[in-house]
UniProtKB/TrEMBL annotation:
Protein name, entry field: [histone H3]-lysine(4) N-trimethyltransferase
Pfam families reported for this sequence: SET, zf-MYND
Species of provenance: Periophthalmus magnuspinnatus
PROSITE patterns per UniProt: SET, ZF_MYND_1, ZF_MYND_2
GO molecular function, one term: histone H3K4 trimethyltransferase activity
EC numbers for this chain: 2.1.1.354
Length: 432
């Protein structure tokens, strides 16, 4: 096994494997960069990004056979062929019926990689892909069903090019990938694809993380967002940290099968401000508040379930508006459930190209976001960025530049000054 300077794998008390530093790291410093062991571009992003290196640019060249995958150049196309060939002819053969899930597509690639790989890859300096936890024994029925349907898809769409291991091994692989896979997101936190980074999977979760993960092409980069002392454990957050302690831990248990013991989960110091209730002369009863919180969690779930249907945008917006009105009788505008729905509403407005409405929702998010998220949060930089870009398209130059600069201040630390995003941002700020 290799190593990375300044870092070591260790047994973290109560957490199993973990990663810690052997030297000090300052805020903004890169701990390490990890190439993807395997990655897959989301179907929706085809044509906007190179299928191989995830480079975003115009005028990518399409694969001559399937006319679906696109590439920077012949070099990227050639390099991607061992993976793309799994899908190229199958997409032609199945036509519209070709619909494997993203995790299924990724697992197909991992199977090929495992077979062809002779040496330990540069993504496995501290932990190998086979060592990633599968949590197979913790899987509930719902999760098991999803995995079974993924396996069925794998057989349906990939049988021509793959030799499958036995069922149990496949189940375990799907489970490993769903617990350890990373969503690759762009600077606005839009989903670009999924990838596996074994070395990064070594890092445990905390709701008060000292590092942050960003992506450069298909590589993951881990940078310090707090000063880290020699001997400190490295933590990232696996989840959106906006929500109160119970919600965060429900999410962690559902997706990763553990309960967080971090300082914030113990003190719950932010919960009250996150669940802020309206101040009225006659205080709102506790039961009313509890009921509304239950309603909010249900509304969020329902919205998530119907979000994928883009043909019902008006209905989606209505769901947001109705729930905001209902919750608004009990919750402050800065309550995280209100913020959640405003954020969703902003997204729907963007889809409908209603820029004015999107800006209206975005403006409401800025202040509470800057209070509830940590100052170097990507959720915060992405909202500055989205809003800044919206102002720029509306020719509100000074408002736009102000927002873009705020985004840039965070991204310089989180993504590093040399990231391509910085160059793009500088150009946007300079434009008239
Ligand atoms: Zn490329
Ligand atoms: Zn093709
Ligand atoms: Zn926690």
């Amino acid at each position: 096994m290799g190593s990375i300077k300044g870092l070591e794998r260790f047994d973290s008390p109560g957490k199993g494997r973990g990663l810690r530093v052997t030297k000090a790291f300052k805020v903004g410093e890169l701990l390490f960069s990890c190439p993807a062991y395997s990655s897959v571009l989301a179907v929706e992003e085809r044509g906007s990004f190179c299928e191989f290196c995830f480079n975003r640019k115009q005028g990518l060249a399409r694969c001559g056979k399937c006319k679906k995958a696109s590439y920077c150049n012949a070099k990227c196309q050639k390099a991607d062929w061992p993976m793309h060939k799994l899908e190229c002819s199958a997409m032609i053969a199945f036509g519209e019926k070709w619909c494997p899930s993203e995790i299924c597509r990724l697992v197909a690639r991992i199977l090929v990689k495992k077979k062809s790989q002779k040496e330990i890859s540069s993504s496995e300096k501290m932990m190998q892909v086979g060592e990633m936890q599968s949590h197979l024994e913790d899987m509930d029925n719902k999760r098991r069903e999803i995995s079974e349907s993924d396996i069925a898809q794998l057989h349906q769409f990939y049988s021509k090019h793959l030799d499958f291991p036995d069922h149990q091994e496949l189940l375990s692989l799907f489970s490993q990938v769903s617990c350890n896979g990373f969503t690759i997101e762009d600077e606005e936190l839009s989903h670009l694809g999924t990838a596996v980074y074994p070395d990064v999977a070594l890092i445990n979760h905390s709701c008060l993380p000292n590092t942050i993960i960003t992506f450069n092409g298909t590589s993951a980069e881990i940078r310090a967002v707090k000063d880290i002392k020699p001997g400190d454990e490295v933590f990232i957050s696996y989840i959106d940290l906006l929500y109160p302690t119970d919600d965060r831990n429900n999410r962690l248990r559902e997706s990763y099968y553990f309960t967080c013991q971090c300082q914030e989960c113990q003190s719950r110091s932010q919960d009250k401000v996150k669940l802020k209730v309206r101040k009225r002369s006659d205080p709102i009863e506790e039961e009313v508040v509890n009921n509304m919180e239950r309603y909010a969690r249900k509304a969020i779930k329902e919205f998530r379930a119907s979000k994928h249907y883009r043909n019902i945008l008006f209905e989606l917006l209505e769901i947001c508006e109705q729930s905001l009105e209902k919750m608004g009788s009990v919750f402050e505008d800065s309550n995280v459930y209100m913020l959640h729905m405003m954020y969703q509403a902003m997204g729907v407005c963007l889809y409908m190209q209603d820029i004015d409405e999107a800006i209206k929702y975005g403006e409401k998010l800025i202040k509470p976001y800057s209070q509830l998220y940590s100052p170097l949060s990507l959720n915060l930089s992405s909202i500055y960025l989205k809003l800044g870009r919206l102002y720029m398209t509306m020719d509100s130059h000074s408002a736009g530049v102000k927002m873009l600069k705020k985004a840039m201040a965070i991204m310089e630390v989180a993504h590093g000054k040399d990231h391509l995003y910085m160059e793009e941002l500088r150009k946007e700020i300079a434009q008239k």
